[in-house]
Write a structure and sequence with these properties.
Blueprint: E1 7-12, H1 18-29, E2 32-33, E3 37-38, E4 53-54, H2 57-65, E5 69-75, E6 78-83, H3 84-92, E7 97-100, H4 103-112, E8 117-122, H5 126-136, H6 141-154, E9 163-166, H7 170-186, H8 192-208
Parallel strand pairs: 1-7, 1-8, 2-7, 3-4, 8-9
Antiparallel strand pairs: 3-6, 5-6
Helix pairs in contact: 1-7
Bound molecules: guanosine-5'-monophosphate (5GP).
Length: 209
Amino acid sequence: MNKKGLLIVISGFSGVGKGTAVKKLVEKYGYSLSVSATTRAPRTGEVDGVDYHFKTVEEFEQLIDYNGFIEWAQYVENYYGTPKKFVEDELSKGNNVILEIEVQGAMHIKEQYPDAVLIFITAPDAQTLKNRLEGRGTEDEKVIAKRLKRAFEETDDMVAYDYLVVNDDLDVCVDDIHSVICAEGFKSSRNREYMQNMKSELEVIRNNK
Ligand code: 5GP
């Protein structure tokens, strides 16, 4: 069944825990994860080439000019982009690829790859989201305020996603996302080739009787 890799876009409010959820999804279920490029400064513990490809503004703009991204966006004053080569190579190998990107980028992906599966991770409620953002302790108050404002704006974009998954319990959230992806792969609309092959094979068997 379905030999083509699925392109899975995961977005969610800043602080909702999507980075952790995606990391667990990759570890537990072996999805291919696209590593984005960004002009944001690395946070403590972040490794170049693992968490992000960290770039200067000049380097990033050059990559835009060379058509090196399948999408890119500006988010809270920094550039973020998905390198084209990795995604296209993985999909053509039949691997399921996860992009963890924000809303503008997700909308660009949907335009270019209508078969992509768009999943939005949300929190049980707004107060929980605020607490998580503050509890992370990686950004100052000004950045947190900007991210909360952005979250407010993003509530209008949730409707464009195929699935909403609540991250209350991390393990449940990860398994819910995996279930969604499995179900997508089983859709009859994604398995037309299998149906056609089945028919041809049955015809051969029938004719050989
Ligand atoms: P952070 O700075 O917290 O790592 O990421 C900020 C936002 O940028 C998150 O919503 C994250 O999903 C998004 N992001 C990360 N990589 C990309 C990318 O390649 N393209 C787009 N459009 N957004 C990205």
